[in-house]
Amino acid sequence: MEDVELEDKNLPPDSPKPDVDPTSDALANELKQTKNKWVVPAYIAIVIFALLLIFLVAVATVIVTIWGVLGVVGFESMFKANPYAGPSWGCYHYDRTLINPSTLENVPEICGASNTSMWKYLNVPLNSWKYVNFTARESGDVDSVMKLKGILLMANLAKDPFVIMQHGIRSCKESAYALMPAAMLWRNGFNVLLIDLRNHGSSEISQYAFASFGLQEHYDVLGGLDYLVANYPRLANITDTVGMWGASMGGATVAIAAARTTMVNAMWLEAAALMVRETLEWNVKSQGFDVPFVMNSVCGKAEFTWPFGCPPFKLNPITLYTNKDTPPVKHVFMSHKTDDTLVPFFNSENSVPIMKNSGVNVTLYSTRDPNAPSYCRHHCDIYSYEPIPYEKRLVAFFNDHLKRLP
Fold first, then answer.
1. Least crowded by CB within 10 Å, which of 111, 160, 274, 282?
2. The pTM is what?
């Protein structure tokens, strides 16, 4: 068979065949080499980009995780009411009746107090006190009606003035912090009501088991006031027979309560947290953390945890004392150590001019005791170091501004 040469049917007969570019093979090889030259770097770039993306995602995950953990831990640390038991203060004891106004000498010494003889003269006989039950004042807010527990120290119920005394965060009415000054007042002729705030001590636990620095708790104090008026009608519509005492967060609580009633003539604030946001920020900074990062994470957690948001709350204690026309309470005594490392001294120092400008008669007592040991961070421990002078100041203040019936 003869070989048949295939012809391009699209070319006319006898047309010249197309010339073959002699460089085409070289060009193809060059392109192939160029392609191979860039393949490896491209793969490397893709791998680097992927690793960088993974790194950025990991860093973002770590930051978000730290943010979330700080938010949870910070919120719990700042606002949780009962994170631990405090046996030396009488709170959350398995049998709280073992620590009461009649057994004060059995309470272990607190804050390294050197004068333990104070316990011996502060006891209240069994027939001079009783447990009482009442409800918080209706607030129209969440957890508006809370069932509360209290202790009433009875001097002369028919004639003597009343003082409502309020413990601080993670404390209770059996706390030595509350019982000691309460017994001081009782033995000097004052009726005293000690209250377990909601989420504290024996009182009811709310659906939001945290402390709001008086925002919600002041309704508990006003509920205690309503209890006294209901049981002792002579107190109704009188402004000079009821006083209040509050320590730390309890100080913020009574400050709000006193600002929302016309019945309180005199108020004692013991290392009161009147500047809530600033106090929390100060504690964050003192622990070596970045304040904006921690507070923003805590406030982010707060928005999802309860309906009150983050401090300053809508009822910020000190801002309630800026009305020059109607001062909420006439007489205030502030007692605060200048080296307090929990509720810093600026709470009292900066609040004095604000209150004075609003027409309140304010007295500030400050002291510093750097040489004495303090397991309480120099917070609310003045009366554990100097009980006799403290008692004199306390009694004189309320005697000056509360009246007794003849």
1. 282
2. 0.83
